[in-house]
Specification:
This is ThuA domain-containing protein. It is a single chain. By secondary structure, the chain is α/β, with parallel strands linked by helices. 24% of the residues lie in helices and 33% in strands. The chain has five helices and eleven strands. Strands 2-1-3-4-11-10-9-6-7 form a nine-stranded mixed beta sheet, with helices on both faces. The longest helix is centred in the N-terminal third of the chain and has 14 residues. It starts with a strand and ends with a helix. The relative contact order is 0.18.
């Protein structure tokens, strides 16, 4: 049985506890044994090197250098990493090691909760197969991203709330390699209920399975 660890905490506005419960259920349905932790100390545990998958759900907050380095080493060795929204890519803003691992960092969501479109860029990728571009209402994440990521979906900023970014095409869903490990991220899912949007739940589940070590 493959083993996964979810580590949740940080800013409560992203419903980290509810997201952790939902994702735990999805992973258990896929045959995973799931460990739940609520402090960043879990990332320093030598046992994480034996996991198949790690899911951080920990908006903002801080991570100790040793914790971040052990997490990076585990993924570099083959452990998968997957996550969503601020729980993964607005976590541990001071840790460049962690940001290098994830492939992107949130910097803004102009207009806060707005309507926008998610456009699939690789509809034939196994993670996106059968899905179509869709409209969504939530935070439209503006991010600083690693050019090495493989982009699976994007969004285009209208410029209504920040005129200088009109027409900017921003990655929303991506995957990447980090050493022997696979990393998956989706910026969707500001609140837990959004994870039940069919497109979001499908791409998240597939992305986690893609990232997980066999």
């Amino acid at each position: 049985m493959r083993k996964a660890m979810i580590v949740w905490g940080g800013w409560p506005g992203h419903d980290p506890d509810l997201c952790a419960s939902m994702i735990r259920g999805w992973l258990k349905a896929e045959g995973f044994e799931v460990r739940i932790e609520t402090t960043t100390a879990a990332f320093a545990d030598p046992a994480i090197h034996d996991l198949s998958l790690i899911i951080p759900i920990y908006t903002m907050s801080k991570i100790e250098k040793a914790e971040a380095l052990n997490l990076c080493e585990a993924v570099r060795g083959g452990v998968g990493l997957a996550g969503h929204h601020g729980g993964m890519c607005d976590a541990f803003r001071e840790s460049v090691d962690y940001q290098f691992l994830c492939g992107g960092q949130w910097v803004a969501h102009p207009g806060n909760i707005i309507d926008y479109k998610v456009d699939l860029t690789k509809p034939d990728d196994p993670i996106m197969t059968g899905l179509k571009s869709f409209e969504h209402r939530s935070e439209q994440y503006y991010m600083h991203v690693d050019p090495a990521i493989e982009v699976l979906a994007t969004t285009t900023f209208s410029g209504e709330h920040a005129p200088w970014i009109e027409g900017v095409v921003m990655p929303v869903v991506w995957k990447k390699r980090y050493g022997a490990g696979r990393v998956f991220y989706s910026s969707l899912g500001h609140r837990a209920y959004e994870l039940d949007v069919p497109e979001i739940r499908t791409l998240m589940t597939r992305g986690m399975l893609w990232a997980a070590r066999e």
